[in-house]
Amino acid sequence: MHLSERIISMPSSPMRKLAPFADAAKQQGKKIYHLNIGQPDIATPENFMLAVKNFNEKVLAYSSSQGMPQLIDAIIKYYKKYDMHFEKDEVLITNGGSEALLFTLQAIGDYNDEIIIPEPFYPNYNGFANMAGIKVIPITTKAEFGFHLPEREVIEQKITNKTRAILLSNPGNPTGVVYTKEEIMLLADIAKKHDLFIIADEVYREFVYSDSGYTSFGNIKDIEDRVIMIDSVSKRFSACGARIGAILSKNKELIAQILKFCQSRLCCPTLEQIGATELFNVSDKYFEEVINEYRKRRDVVYKGLQEIPGIICQEPKGAFYVIAKLPIEDAEDFVKWLLTDFHLDNETIMLTPAKGFYATPNSGLDEVRIAYILNEDDLKQAMHILKVALDTYPKKK
Amino acid sequence: MHLSERIISMPSSPMRKLAPFADAAKQQGKKIYHLNIGQPDIATPENFMLAVKNFNEKVLAYSSSQGMPQLIDAIIKYYKKYDMHFEKDEVLITNGGSEALLFTLQAIGDYNDEIIIPEPFYPNYNGFANMAGIKVIPITTKAEFGFHLPEREVIEQKITNKTRAILLSNPGNPTGVVYTKEEIMLLADIAKKHDLFIIADEVYREFVYSDSGYTSFGNIKDIEDRVIMIDSVSKRFSACGARIGAILSKNKELIAQILKFCQSRLCCPTLEQIGATELFNVSDKYFEEVINEYRKRRDVVYKGLQEIPGIICQEPKGAFYVIAKLPIEDAEDFVKWLLTDFHLDNETIMLTPAKGFYATPNSGLDEVRIAYILNEDDLKQAMHILKVALDTYPKKK
């Protein structure tokens, strides 16, 4: 049977493809510290389930294709705190940030159009681009420079008459980079000059650990008609299983067009929207505590990495990831070996080989992504295990 | 700003585009009998919310990309009742039947490939094909013949080297047709001969009101590797707001490939999957009652239509829709007029003009879709209003 090129050419998830080896290790009784997925252990605010449990309609009916009005209002209110002012017809609720990305790509590009993304990047960007038939053109960034952007010329070289948008996550998954104000303004200027959209994936907006601040594309008045904000409750409120995201843009025509996609899939789930509405009402104290917790974890991981000879990485400034260059040839082999051939007192760690975060072939082969989503003690132990494992690994450089 | 061809060319939902006129009519104090949307008034089985309310995990975490194991097991068990035997790696849980359709189209076709669909059809088929860049090639069916399929030659004429699949809903939305065993076997034979997939949207499987039985594509052993079953809990359990659907196929390679799409959007919502699992445990008595209710409603609507001079329609045999040809020129004008210029004792009805269910231009202009999702008394009154309205309408043929 004939299957489509787009699906055949799509790579498997780099976060999930080594899962069978982890399962086998667990069956052998090994304890695994999972640093490979972005599933936080932070409790979801209780008001989510309280709101859901209060639902007492007899019929679980379709809701509005755009999203439930109370959730849209809650999101608008949340954005006001950041001095971003969206109106009701500038917001669409989606099935997670995932659907927000897919709909956005389908709205701005046709088959063989191009989008520019700094690599390493969240690999599902590739997945959605594949579905949409759009080509990903990477701008390579490096561990040595903390994954900051190259200069203007390098970026502009990538722009063709097929380029439709620049897509990036800030703070960055998988790198932990927080782009400087200068970088954001540079991209804004390039977008304006070349008539491109900026697809700003800011789902980790709150998770910034440096004092040098955070610049959102949503605050640049001059390009507001070309900024498409991708959002999600998953990480912000530790509610990954809710699958509630959003698209926001001051470009009303774009939102009106994407609403047609929303109408074709009818609506997002009712209960999850009811719960998500309450998430936006959590206190600022909730964020303070959560960010504090992640900052401590970031410190543990970064300190642990610094103590291992031969590792290259700069201090990550945001989100809850870091990409580290290891003193090895083949990170995928190393990660597999950690699961199949190594243990320290019957414990091991699981990391994500970074290869899958690059669009340029043979890039990031010696890099791994570490998600610091465990408590401090577990992270300390995990870093210790990494150190011992790198000492033991037979194929060390 | 440049938007994609695929989104610009996508029509708005025919079910939703007259909504502003309905809102205006309501503001004038008119009561509207809504026959225009497929949102049943039947209560969702209580065990859905009971299961959701029992959720007490601290973290609302990602679930499996494929779908939660207990839901997959429940669906497999449900299918066994119909003598269809799926294994765990032959099922994917999706965000409604909507995502099941989108992923399936993206998996079987590339840009400019073609799928064949009998028209009038569920207009979101068009939406998903648009998103995927796939062309819809219609086979026209007629009210006069109860929307049954034309003969083999007419169907085979539509097949080119770009054709990838035949997609159809059975029982049919919007027509209420239930295809005969001969029709199903004919399509199976054509699919085999021309190496096509059959995308079988059988979400209304239980809603069959004739004694002549129902033939599922899932029971044709000979073509099991080319049948892709689209399913959803929305109509079967009156749980439209849950947005839980499924793709099932004995073609394991296809399922393994589509799993990559599922992984890219991470998972479906956790709570809705927990609730949906329990839906599949409702008793057969639930279905008997619901089907009995819909049969009575079908009878009221069909009897009402028969009593109106000049209406052409055959008795609908399944789902909860009927398409009727009215003695008018322009159904869209008529539907709008019903909302803006007509009332009977301050009451009116809302219907869906059928034009949007056709891919062939200028088809179905004098037809409307009626969804019989109100109680019998309301439906009787609605049919009475339709009769009076047609008598009154100034542009009657």
TrEMBL record, chains A, B:
It is an enzyme of class 2 (transferase). One of its GO terms (biological process) is amino acid metabolic process. Keywords: Aminotransferase, Pyridoxal phosphate, Transferase. Its cofactor is pyridoxal 5'-phosphate. Signal peptide: none annotated. It comes from Crassaminicella thermophila. GO terms for molecular function: pyridoxal phosphate binding; transaminase activity. NCBIfam families: PRK07568.1. Transmembrane segments: none annotated. This is Aminotransferase. It comes from the Bacteria. PROSITE patterns: AA_TRANSFER_CLASS_1. Belongs to the class-I pyridoxal-phosphate-dependent aminotransferase family. Residues 31-384 form the Aminotransferase class I/classII large domain. Its EC number is 2.6.1.-. The lineage of its organism: Bacteria, Bacillati, Bacillota, Clostridia, Eubacteriales.
